[in-house]
């Protein structure tokens, strides 16, 4: 029996090594193709040779399996840089629509990309300046003063300034090109001409043609319309998703049937002329509409419903109440809620110094469909309960009774259109209305009181971020599962689904218990794509510079060991290079981040804390 077991293990390891070798070969060829296709120059005039060299340097580093690692640095395979989606930001084409190379490239640039279109910029500049002028004049009229010519002069000067700023990049490139051309000596030029003439018969070098993004967008819209396809950005990875209309319709009906949160009111039954006479002007208010974000990171690609009501009649009331109440909730629930993974790390590190053991378990709990499952009456009642607990009689010169009445009005008057039908939400709140988040948080706060107290009385840790709950405690797994079953009976509207183990993922944080020691690193969902705002997008430069800064800061805060920090920095650099960030900008922002926190020397194993 031992010999059979030994032979089986040997054969299994041989197959495993062969599969790894094949995977390494495929990935090596793909990376080699990317390196060879790297541009010599970026669109914005930055030298890309350094970026290409850095990409090669990191590619040629020994793989993590070849490095000598201690036990404290082991991580699951999901953290390998050759994981799914690493090589390039992708799109999810479940509709199987045929795309040209240009269309595919445009979609790969992602939802955040804005292409340089002077006509669009000119139209938007005119609109924005007209809006600004109206606002300035309104403030003058409030003071009973006529605006006069100074306002006209200011707007005219601002228009000229914006035009000049918009034209700076191309002007700079032209000046740089002219200087380079005049500085070249005649000998160099003649040698270049001779070499080009000698190779002209072999290779024809064609100038790079500027892409007409506007034309590609129009063609893509037409193709998507003909293919009966919906284009959406995904819920988590924020890349584009292409899905069939009938699939969206089917999943929408399934979701509405499951939650029972929406009541169909049918069509309006009016003639077009009658409807136009009775409806409010579109520039004043607008009926909300329902759309879905595909959850590509979950099996079956379920949908997240979003009710877009930016001009809905109740949106201003919702924003006003949310501004009043959210700060009060944050104050009341500060001991049981977190706002980020970094805040959870700080709480965990403090707790682990005293309570962490080898058998300590972590548990993450997801609340199913929180926004649509909170009953409207009970949700508003939880607001009243919060205000009573804080012993407030009025907020901002507004009586509590008025706040409750307005909240009830917002929650019970969520109307929207979808697929030619009109609906009223009869359960939960609109995911898109600001007040819905505060009411859901209040409802969960009073629901979880008994759970949080039970965990803390057992020297455990309990925190929640909206509909995600984190628990760590020194209980047997069987006992914790029994308690979760009991908690599921507290309220028929709240259903908890748990994940328990020595390693869990919460928000963007991966937490592990290794022999009584706490280890943390960055967690990326299986649907993760290395997509950041493309550097060639027409966004302000400070926004692009902030991305390497913030992402490296997150890596340092999340990674508990120096080796995991190096791995995350390596992945981050490659992802930024793939999104056309110059290596010069990346290094500059990495250094700026360290300098801001008074780190004047390179990070090493010895000084990484």
From TrEMBL:
Superkingdom, natural source: Eukaryota
Pfam families per record: HTH_animal, RVT_1
Domain Reverse transcriptase intervals: 274-522
InterPro entries found in the cross-reference section: HTH_animal (IPR058912), RT_dom (IPR000477)
Name assigned to this protein: Reverse transcriptase domain-containing protein
Species in which this protein is naturally found: Rotaria magnacalcarata
Lineage: Eukaryota, Metazoa, Spiralia, Gnathifera, Rotifera
